[in-house]
Specification:
heterodimer, A: 405 residues, alpha+beta, six-stranded mixed beta barrel, four-stranded antiparallel sheet, elongated, B: alpha/beta, Rossmann fold, 8 helices, 35% helix, globular
């Protein structure tokens, strides 16, 4: 019996003018926004995460804090960390390795163009090997730095592109001037999809120290722990050690130990903000869409008064007239939702494909059938609810007056 | 001679319909006595403004009288709820309108199926019955067309098929030929006549006295909201069988 109303509703909808369909834009936009957002899902998280250079789950980052924390990480700190701190950390039982790293602003000249970039110091020996691993760095062309390399440099992927700010692609074997000294490019990194890593300049530690002269000071210490499960313990141990070395009380630390989880949390809170914003926009457009349906159904009832009169004359009960308009309204919402789901899924897929080519990742779009079903059912529900008042109005028409048209 | 016991199908007892209009009251219909027996062909005749449309709405139980009582199959329609009345109306009365009143978004066949849907008939049964009825009005080849794609005469024949959908006792036709030319009008009337011969009760509302007297057995003549006279076919002539009441005698005397 209910199926009859559904069929009748679809038949009537087929003859609706463009005006009716335009009122569905709200539902369509709302559903598209929500579905595409969720289809992007992990892709969005990966894209933002890559900007922070988060890859390994076994690495803690120790940074000195301070008032002037502008510029490269740790570089603005008043009371800097030192290589001695790194050595002390490395002796902790839960720690496998502590790699001191410096990030320095350097001046690069190439093709008669000048640019200021960040150079990252590269340690020696085992730490160098481990460093490549935890930073997940691989070359696209050439090779990575070796301990014996002096005046040799490995560049981020963006340097090999035409739009690198030098009006010329940097190629293997090219000579570039760093702080007025000549360096040879021995490697170009693979694309990482991160603004930091794709624009990085990698130089062996002693060479960079000679160039910029930071001495024993360290911008940040990357701590590789023995086991992923020791994360919390290692964090506590490092905090305790540095508190005593730097002579500060608990709760007043002038340094920071960040875990990948904490960084991911930052990413997630940013994403959460974006998601909340999208959901607010979606809710508003769905509300507008619902009002549009109320409007179009009210007009439709007025336009079809005669039809209502005929239906009543040939035996339709009030409830049957109500049902017809109620279902029609629900189907109107459903169709808006259906188009929204299709577009949303397509946008999600396109977005993930885009992220994949940007990051070189192999993420797959999330096609959540529960979400799709929910969106469709919700759209029908919103349409039906919006149709209640107009349908009641249709049901209570007086047959004689309605027949007069 | 065997006395034929005829069943009373619709009866209006001293029915009046008044509409409030601003401060005054429009008396559309006054003291109407009306009776239809099973198998009769009855015409309600009157010029425009005579109250015949009001009478039709009351006879078809689309409207409630201000005064008086209407019986449909011995049941007082004022005692029914709105929904029950719709159900009873759908089952017992088939409507045919001057302007056809088919639903434009539905095909010819779906239009004929619609009254059965409201009675809860299954879709297979509806489909079979609709096809059968469209064959009866010789329109089975138009089944999948939309009302906008067929002629006026054809639309009215679809309306006839629709009126028969729930196998009603009475067919109520409001100016069934009013929007048709003489020739197609005659075809439509032939179908109604045929149905009457098969035993269907037919009530036709018309302003055309020739049409009324050509097809009907009994003609109710309305004028200015009053019943002027009732004539009945006897052989080839119509005789006045009005039951004179004081009020009616007075109103007749005025003219």
């Amino acid at each position: 019996m209910k199926l009859d109303y559904l069929i009748l509703a679809l038949k009537n909808l087929r003859h609706r003018g463009i005006r009716s369909w335009l009122t569905l834009l709200g539902i369509f936009i709302g559903v598209t926004a929500v579905v595409s957002l969720i289809s992007l899902g992990a892709g969005l998280q990966a894209a933002v995460g890559a900007q922070f250079g988060i890859s390994s789950t076994q690495v803690l980052t120790v940074q000195a804090g301070g008032i002037n924390s502008y510029g490269a990480p740790g570089s603005g700190a008043v009371n800097k960390l030192t290589t001695a701190d790194a050595d002390a950390i490395e002796k902790l039982p839960s720690v496998d390795m502590a790699i001191p790293r410096n990030v320095e602003t350097i001046r690069i000249e190439f093709n008669d163009k000048l640019s200021f970039m960040s150079a990252v110091s590269i340690p020696y020996g085992e730490k160098k090997k481990k460093g490549w691993e935890v930073m997940d760095l691989e070359v696209e062309k050439g090779r990575l730095l070796q301990d014996s390399d002096i005046k040799k440099v490995v560049l981020g992927n963006s340097f090999s592109k035409n739009n690198n700010g030098f009006d010329k692609e940097v190629e293997l074997g090219n000579k570039i001037l760093i702080n007025d000294e000549k360096f040879e490019v021995v490697g170009i990194l693979k694309k990482k999809g991160s603004l930091i890593f794709d624009n990085v300049v990698l130089i062996n530690n002693d060479v960079l120290e000679d160039l910029t002269g930071y001495g024993e000071e360290v911008d940040l210490i990357a701590v590789i722990i023995k086991d992923g499960d020791l994360m919390d313990r290692a964090t506590e141990e490092i905090k305790k050690l540095l508190r005593s070395r730097r002579n500060v009380d608990e709760g007043e630390e002038d340094f920071e130990v960040s875990t990948p989880e904490a960084m991911m949390e930052t990413v997630n809170s940013i994403l959460g903000g974006v998601q909340a914003f999208v959901i607010i926009i979606a809710s508003i457009s769905i509300l507008v869409g619902a009002l549009g349906i109320v409007n179009t159904m009210t007009t439709s009832v007025l336009e079809r008064r005669k039809e209502i009169g005929i239906m009543k004359a040939i035996g339709a009960k009030n409830s049957q007239v109500f049902m017809q308009f109620f279902f029609e309204s629900g189907m109107l919402g459903f169709i808006g939702g259906l188009v929204g789901v299709v577009f949303g899924t397509l946008i999600g897929i396109a977005g993930v494909v885009g992220i994949n080519s940007f990051l070189g990742a192999e993420l797959s779009p999330v096609i959540d059938f529960v979400l799709i079903g929910g969106a469709l059912a919700g759209s029908f529900f919103i349409g039906a609810v919006a149709g209640i008042a107009p349908a009641m109005n249709a049901a209570k028409q007086n047959p004689v007056e309605a027949l007069r048209g | 001679m065997v006395m034929e016991v005829k069943k009373e199908i619709i009866r209006l007892r001293n029915v009046s319909k008044h509409y409030p209009m601003g401060d005054s009251v429009v008396k559309a219909l006054n003291h109407l006595e009306f009776k239809v027996y099973g198998g009769e062909f009855v015409a309600i005749m009157g010029p425009s403004g005579s109250g015949k449309s009001t009478a039709m709405n009351l006879v078809g139980s689309l409207d409630m009288p201000t005064y008086g009582t209407i019986y449909l199959d011995d049941g007082d329609i004022s005692k029914f709820s709105e929904s029950d009345l719709a159900q009873v109306r759908g089952k017992k009365i088939g409507f045919i309108f001057q302007s056809f009143n088919l639903i434009p978004n539905l095909t010819v066949k779906e239009n004929v199926m619609l009254p059965m849907m409201f009675q809860g008939t299954s879709i297979e049964e509806r489909s079979d019955k609709a096809e059968e009825l469209l064959k009866l009005v010789e329109l089975d080849y138009r089944m999948e067309h939309y009302p906008g794609e067929i002629s006026g005469g054809e639309m009215q024949r679809v309306a006839i098929a629709r009126s028969l959908a729930n196998d009603p006792e009475v067919i109520l036709a409001d100016e069934p030929t009013g929007n048709l030319d003489t020739k197609t009008g005659a075809v439509v009337m032939e179908f109604l006549e045929k149905l009457n011969k098969q035993g269907k009760t037919i009530i036709m509302v018309t302003h055309d006295p020739d049409l009324a007297e050509k097809y009907a057995d009994v003609v109710y003549w309305l004028r200015d909201g009053e019943l002027e006279k009732v004539t009945k076919r006897v052989g080839k002539r119509f005789v006045d069988v009005t039951k004179k009441k004081k009020k009616e005698a007075k109103s007749n005397g005025r003219r």
